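Worked example (supplementary).
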Amino acid sequence: MLRTKGTGSQMTASTPRRQPTLDEVAERAGVSRSAASRVINKAPHVSRATRDAVERAIKEMGYLPNRTARALATRQTGIVALAVSHDDPQLFADPFFAQVIVGVSAALEETDLHLLLCLASSGRGRFRLTNLLRTRGVDGLMLMPLHGDDPLTRLVAQAGVPVVYGGRPWHVQPQWYVDSDNVGGARLATEYLAGLGRTRIAAITGQMSTDVGEARYRGYREAMIIAGLTPHGTAEGDFTEAGGAAAMRSLLASHPDLDAVFAASDKMAAGALRVLTNSGRSVPADVAVVGFDDVGIAEHTAPPLTTIHQSIQALGKEMARMLIAVIGGEEPTSLILPTRLVRRESA
Amino acid sequence: MLRTKGTGSQMTASTPRRQPTLDEVAERAGVSRSAASRVINKAPHVSRATRDAVERAIKEMGYLPNRTARALATRQTGIVALAVSHDDPQLFADPFFAQVIVGVSAALEETDLHLLLCLASSGRGRFRLTNLLRTRGVDGLMLMPLHGDDPLTRLVAQAGVPVVYGGRPWHVQPQWYVDSDNVGGARLATEYLAGLGRTRIAAITGQMSTDVGEARYRGYREAMIIAGLTPHGTAEGDFTEAGGAAAMRSLLASHPDLDAVFAASDKMAAGALRVLTNSGRSVPADVAVVGFDDVGIAEHTAPPLTTIHQSIQALGKEMARMLIAVIGGEEPTSLILPTRLVRRESA
DNA sequence: GCTGAGACTGGAAGCGCTTCCAGAATGTCG
DNA sequence: CGACATTCTGGAAGCGCTTCCAGTCTCAGC
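After joint prediction of all chains, the assembly is encoded as:
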C-alpha cells in the first residue's frame, strides 16, 4: 500500500473560529437570550425592533444554532434512522437499497431531518441499533425486515421511538408500514400468463417463511383459481439466481411439460431462464417467464424479462413521509403501493 | 393507492417509560452524580464500593446515558457523515456507492460512531450539508467529490470539522484522502495490451476535467511511452455507456485499424464493446478491450470484460479509519490503494 | 385618569451529561 | 504518632439552547 504525505496545501481547514453562541448574539443585539431565541424560532410576541436587532446580529456574526444544544432542550435530534437488517452485509449492495435510500432522501430533503444509515447485519450491528434508539439518538426509525422473523422487529418494538416498516415482517402487522402490493402483482403476472393462453403455469416462490414470499405465492394461487387452472408445479427458491436455477431444474424434472413460469423475483427468473435455455427450450416460445421486482437485472437478461414493476424509490419516499407524519404527532394510515406489469420479451 | 388501517395489534410500542437519568442512578446507588459519571466513563479514582453500587443501580434501572446530553457536554456527537455529491441523485444507485457504504460501515461498526448519509445533489442538499457541519451536527465528514470542481470542496473546507476525501478533487490536494491508484491501474491495463502484442492501442478517457479521468489517461500515456508505442487515437467519454459508445464510434472513424482499446471505465468499455461488435469486429480477436473499475457490469458484458479491479469497499473502509484517526487527534497519512488486473475474455 | 387585556420582555429553571476543584478520607513512612 | 502523598468524593459550574413565568409596557375603552 503506497503512502503519500498529505501536503494540505490549499485545503487545510481555515481558522477554527468558535461559532458564536446565542448569548453572544443576544448581547450584541442588546436583548435577552430568550428574546433572541424567540426570533430564531419565529415564536410570537416579538416586537419589530427586537426582531430586526437580533436578525442583524445573527447576520453579522454568522450565527447558527448548535444542533446538539437544541436537541437536548427540545428532546428532538432531527435525525431519523434507516436500518437494513440482513446477515450478509454484502447483500446491501443490491440496487434495491440504493433505491430506497434515494426515495427516503428525497422526502427528507424537504424537511430538516437527516438520515442515519444502520447496516444491522451482525449481532453487534443490532446492538448498536437498539442502543441508538434507547439512548435517544434518533427521532424515528425506518426498518426493512428481510428475514421472516427478524429479531430486530422485537428489539425495536420497545424502543420508544416511532418505527415505520418497509415491507411487513412475517405474520405480524406493524402499526405503520408501507409495502408493495405483492399479492396483486403476482396475480397480475399470473393472469398475464394465463391470458397468453398458457395453461401449465409453474411457480418459483421465494422463501415461504417471509411475508413477500408468501404473498407472491398467494397472488399466483388466487389468479390460477380465478383462471380456472390448477398450479402446475411449485418450487421454493430463496430469491437468488442460484436458487431460481435450482428450483427451475426441479420443476423441469417434475413437470417437463410446463409452458410458463412465474418467478417471485427477477433474480430467480434469471436463474430459471438460464436453466430453460440450457435445457433446449426457447423462451418465450416454449416456456413464457414472468419475474417480479424490475430493479437491476430485468432488462439485461436474455431474453429481457417481462416482469412486475414495483417502485422502490416510491416505497422509500412514502416510508419517510409516514415517519415524518408520525413524529409530527399524526396518525397516518399504512400504505400499499401498486405494481404494474412491464412487458419485455420473456412472455 | 390502497390504504389499509394499521391495527397495531401486537406491535404497538410498549409503555414509553421515561429512561432513567444519571441523577436517578446516582441517587439509587447512594453516590453523587459525578461519581456515577466516573463509573460510566471508566474514569480513574473510583473506589471499588462506589463502582459496584453504581453498576448495580445501572443494571437494575436499565440505565443508558442520553446521547444528546453527552454530546453537548463533550462536544462530540458520535456521528460522522458520508456525503455524495452529484447533480443526478439517480446516480447514487450505482453499485459503487453501496460498496463504499459497506466498507465505511464495517469500519464504523468497531467504534461507536454512527453514519449519517447525505445525498448532496441539489443546491438544497449542499445547503443542508454545510449547515450540518457548521451547526456541529457531526464530528467529521467523508466526501466523495464526483465533479471536477465540485462546489462542495470549497464549502466544506471551512466547516471546522475534519474532512476525508474518497478520490481527489480536481487539481487540489486535500490534506486527507484515500484514492485508488488510477495511474498505476491504467498503466497496468495498457502494459497488458502491449504485452499481448497489440501496437495500435486507443484510449477512451473519462472527463479530463476530473482527477480520475486525467489520472487514468496519464497512466495510459506513460505505459505507451515505456512500451515504445505512440497513442493510437484518444477520445473523451463521460464514464457512461453511451459516452463510451460515442467515443468508440469516433475512434473507429479516425483510426479504423486500431487493434486494442483501453477504456477508463467498465461502463464506457461496455458501450465500446457494443459498437465494436456492431461494426463487425470481433473482441478480442480483432480488437482487445480492457476496462477499469470491476464493479457491477464487468462480468456481464459480452464478452466478459478484462478490467482493472479496485476495491471500493476497501476504499470506504480506509476512509472511515482515516477519519476516525483524525477525529482522535492523530495525523494519518493519505492512502493510495492498489489496483490489479482481472483477466476475463475481452483481452 | 383608571382599568384590564394583550403584547412584549428578561430572569431563571430546566434538558442530562462531563469535568474541574477543593476538601475529606485513606494510606504510607520515618 | 504526625506529616505528607494518594485516592476518592460531591458540589458546582459548565455545554448552548428552549420555555415557563412573572412582571412591564402599551393602549383601547369607559
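Two points are worth noting when inspecting this output. Chain A has a mean pLDDT of 91. Residues 81 and 116 of chain A are 4 Å apart (CA to CA).
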